[in-house]
Amino acid sequence: MDIDALRSFLAFAETGSFTRAAKQICRTQSAFSAQMKKLEEETGAGLFEKNGRNLILSEAGLQLSAQAKQLITLHDNTLNQLKQNQGKRSLRLGCPEDYNDIVLPIIVAIIKDADPRCSIHIYSETSMTLRKWLDTDKIDAAILTRQPNTEEGYWLTSDRGVWIAAPDYQLSQNSPIPLALFQTDCKYHAAAIDGLTKKGISFQLLACCNTASAQRALVKNGLAIGAMGKLSIGNELSIIENMPSLPNVDIVLSVSAKVHPLLNSCFLQNLEANFKKKMPMGSQPNQVN
């Protein structure tokens, strides 16, 4: 059924007059009458009946009147939603896997607050890969570990490197320490190797992992100890004290040169404050001496 014809029909239902209904919809009375005749042909039912000198809605007309209001409301709401989404594009967000548990949900929550209708596509890759994707406009923004001595991105928070082990793990004084580390481009990898070497602590690099989950799994099962940012260790691992120091890092949100409409100056200026508000006060991990 034609939606304009339904609007015209409701105009009659509300006014009870062909003349007044035609005026409300800005049509001639003859045009309005032709529209109603066509609507009756489409429905296969007489929508009007005479009541003395006047026309009133028939039983079929009364039924259609109730349904027509719902159809028009659904039609108008659908059009409004389509118009609101017209020209909108999804936001492509990159995030290293080790930031998925704590940092990523906060960023997604901030984006959702800014635009509840925004669709986000998330890619988990290393910071090195995500920088390349930003440069080639493959993604719109990325959560990154800031490169040393740069002002890269918009600052979110800092993280400190810690040594991690299973809660019941016992360090041996008589054999090399087994290590499970991230890839060689990770700051904690180089710092861990360098720190143990300078302290004269014997070690064996058991595994070099390309995901934080793989590294945590090896450590959790007591196969090795590891080094990673405190925000990434989860609740099942413990921090080892009295080990060589590991560096602090800055975590930032970097955006593509072709700025996504949502990531405007207002959003970015308030990003640090909004991130701080949503940052959970996590419980402190146990310590292994």
UniProtKB/TrEMBL annotation:
Keyword Cell cycle: no
Highest taxon, organism lineage: Bacteria
Residue ranges occupied by any HTH lysR-type domain in the UniProt entry: 1-58
Family annotation (Pfam families): HTH_1, LysR_substrate
UniProt GO molecular function: DNA binding; DNA-binding transcription factor activity
Keyword set includes Transcription: yes
Keyword terms, alphabetized: DNA-binding, Transcription, Transcription regulation
Protein family according to the UniProt entry: Belongs to the LysR transcriptional regulatory family.
Record protein name field: LysR family transcriptional regulator
